Amino acid sequence: GEDVEQSLFLSVREGDSSVINCTYTDSSSTYLYWYKQEPGAGLQLLTYIFSNMDMKQDQRLTVLLNKKDKHLSLRIADTQTGDSAIYFCAERNTGTASKLTFGTGTRLQVTL
Amino acid sequence: NAGVTQTPKFQVLKTGQSMTLQCAQDMNHEYMSWYRQDPGMGLRLIHYSVGAGITDQGEVPNGYNVSRSTTEDFPLRLLSAAPSQTSVYFCASSDTGQSYEQYFGPGTRLTVT
């Protein structure tokens, strides 16, 4: 079955860049997503990338996809204290519009 | 648009009790899902639906039932609550645009004693 893995914790200083990594096993993944969860809240979609793309940039966010290594990363430039949250990557494959497989989440702590 | 709404926000049950977690969306989405979130395990899919009258099992369906009589509502029923069902439950709905973006509700925190 599908498996998505992330490291559990990342600490960065305010103003630095954060890079959150994710690996997945399903080679038929069509879309890969990054979600943000703030304390006590639901998940909010940050960005997504289609599997035929290598990179996607959206303001401070850059997503890199290495399909050969099944590796996805999220880079947050100029990290702010408001970026402190849990970040989940998720993958979806063809024909499963309702089914996302999530990673365990990476808790990002931004220090002053 | 209210988006995806869930009730209640918090619930405490005794072992063996039953209850229904409510989920509604006003975006006319065909696809709806229920997930549970446990520490260190991410979100796991319980049940999902691709349209009214159609439901299917996800990764961890045991102990839960769902139905989808309308497009808007997708309730999750706990038949006989167990402490292992203590978790945070999220409902989500998906659009049918290119990315099938999932919109999540705020969650229901359930404790079973």
Description:
The complex is a heterodimer of chains A (112) and B (113). Chain A contains no helices and eleven strands. Chain A has strands spanning 4-6, 9-13, 18-24, 29-37, 43-50, 55-58, 61-66, 71-76, 85-93, 101-102, 106-111. In chain A, strand 6 (55-58) and strand 7 (61-66) form a beta hairpin. With 113 residues, chain B is mostly beta strands. In chain B, strands 2, 4, 5, 6, 9, 10 and 11 form a seven-stranded mixed β-sheet that branches. In chain B, strand 9 and strand 10 form a beta hairpin. The mean pLDDT of chain B is 92. Chain A binds chain B through residues 4, 8, 31, 33, 35, 41-45, 48, 50, 88, 90, 92, 97-105, and chain B through 4, 31-33, 35, 40-45, 48-50, 58, 90, 92, 94, 96, 99-107.
Globally, the shape of chain A reads globular
Q: Approximately what portion of the residues of chain A adopt beta-strand conformation?
A: over 45%
**Rounded radius of gyration of chain A (Å):** 13 Å
Mean pLDDT of chain B: 92
- End-to-end Cα distance of chain A: 41 Å
Unreliable spans of chain B:
none
In which range does the helix fraction of chain A lie?
Answer: under 10%
Q: How many helices of chain B?
A: 0
Any low-confidence stretches of chain A, pLDDT <50, length ≥5? none
The beta-strand count of chain B equals 11
- Gross morphology of chain B: globular
Radius of gyration of chain B: 13 Å
